[in-house]
Write a structure and sequence with these properties.
The protein has two domains: 252 residues, Aspartate Aminotransferase, domain 2; 116 residues, Aspartate Aminotransferase, domain 1 (Alpha-Beta Complex), CATH 3.90.1150. It contains twelve helices and eleven strands. It has a seven-stranded mixed sheet, with helices on both faces.
């Protein structure tokens, strides 16, 4: 039983596998690298995927969608392509290392960084972030949903703050895209980083960055684009300027199929199903002596994941017992977000995190909670 969809979604809808194989076996060519039929078909798939992504996030101009290898690549491009020495960036203690580590590295290039502590429930205070704004603040960068405790952050209010302060708003949607509706222009998001392989149900090695029309972005990778070939400089046109090299066409074709599946099912239907499963898991886990669940008390303020610990039981050992004894796959440890665990009080051992997917059933959640009881009993008896 797979309950680690926050890391990557599995299984994918059947149409995703079919789209990947079609792109590899039947198309086989690179988009924009030839005038023959196969290359033109590859270009059509690429365009359709870009249009589907744009529609999904309410973006009117699909050229503002840049395909990347993952959300980490998108975050690095967003940061390195907009910041210069002397700029100040505000982020929070709930961020993933995919955002924090590039920011730490940029401090060596003269970027100033403020990390605002979240509350013990993982929620960000807009007022705390407002108080940190300086004259040289260039960007506020936050995750939409915590990958550790599922806290849904107030991005609309933060977007309003960014407009008031005249700073860029970067949102990491790694745990929200495919679960929560995101109207990027309507909310006021300037830069939106999204993985393709999580909630959007696409393959590994896919991601994207939405860039608002008013945001000046500098390429960080130069190379062939299939356009403006006589120019010595990188083409200054979206999205070519930021997509040097050959695209991961099979992955992008699979991403298109994943988005089509979500639209057919209905985003609200998928979210409601996931919410029911997490609520069921929480009720069952709270009945186990010694269990602590992290994040906002209100279930409606959480999304995607449920993190918990059991008193006196090592989280990694519990996850290993679930895997070996019951073939249940969950994530344990720090989830690449050490500051979040410090905020929640779960250092150094971290938590056990479960994240159901589109195909998870209520029966599987019941099996999981039963397995937790048996594993905890086994661990405590052997201690």
């Amino acid at each position: 039983m797979y309950l680690d969809n926050a890391a990557t979604s599995y299984p994918k809808p059947e149409r995703v596998y079919e789209a990947v194989l079609h792109a590899m076996r039947e198309v086989g060519a690179s988009p924009g690298r030839g005038g023959y039929r196969r290359s033109l078909e590859a270009g059509r798939i690429l365009f359709q995927a870009r249009e589907a992504v744009a529609t999904f996030f309410s973006v009117s101009d699909s050229a503002r969608i840049i395909f990347t290898h993952n959300a980490t690549s998108a975050l690095n491009l967003a940061l390195q392509g907009t910041l210069v020495a002397g700029n100040h960036v505000i982020t929070t203690s709930m961020e993933h290392n995919s955002l924090l580590r590039p920011l730490y590295a940029l401090r060596n290039s003269g970027i100033e960084l403020s990390i605002i502590p979240a509350g013990s429930d993982g929620m960000i205070s807009v007022d705390d972030i407002r108080a940190a704004v300086r004259v040289n603040t260039r960007m506020i960068a936050v995750s939409h949903v915590s990958n550790v405790c599922g806290a849904i952050q107030p991005i609309r209010q933060l977007a309003g703050l960014c407009r008031e302060a005249g700073v860029l708003f970067l949102v990491d949607a790694a745990q929200s895209a495919g679960y929560l509706p995101i109207d990027a222009p309507g909310i006021g998001i300037d830069l939106l980083a999204v993985p393709g392989h999580k909630g959007l149900l696409g393959p590994f090695g896919t991601g994207l960055l939405y860039v608002a029309p008013h945001v000046p972005l500098t390429p960080v990778i130069q190379g062939g684009t299939g356009s403006h070939s006589t120019a010595e400089e990188q083409p200054q046109v979206m999205p070519d300027s930021f997509e040097a090299g050959t695209h991961n066409l099979p992955g992008i074709a699979g991403l298109l199929a994943g988005i089509d599946f979500i639209r057919d099912q209905g985003l609200s239907t998928i979210f409601q199903r996931e919410h029911v499963l997490l609520t069921q898991a929480e009720l069952l886990l709270r009945a186990i002596p010694g269990v602590t669940i992290y994040g906002p008390e209100d279930p409606s303020a959480r999304c995607s994941v449920l993190s918990f610990t059991v008193s006196g039981v090592d989280s990694s050992l519990l996850a290993a017992e679930l895997d070996h004894g019951f073939a249940v796959s969950v994530r344990a440890g720090l989830h690449c977000a050490p500051l979040a665990h410090r905020t929640l009080g779960t250092l150094p051992g971290g938590t056990v995190r479960l994240s159901p997917g589109w195909s998870t059933s209520c029966e599987e959640i019941a099996f999981f909670s039963d397995a937790v009881v048996q594993c905890v009993d086994k661990i405590r008896k052997s201690a």
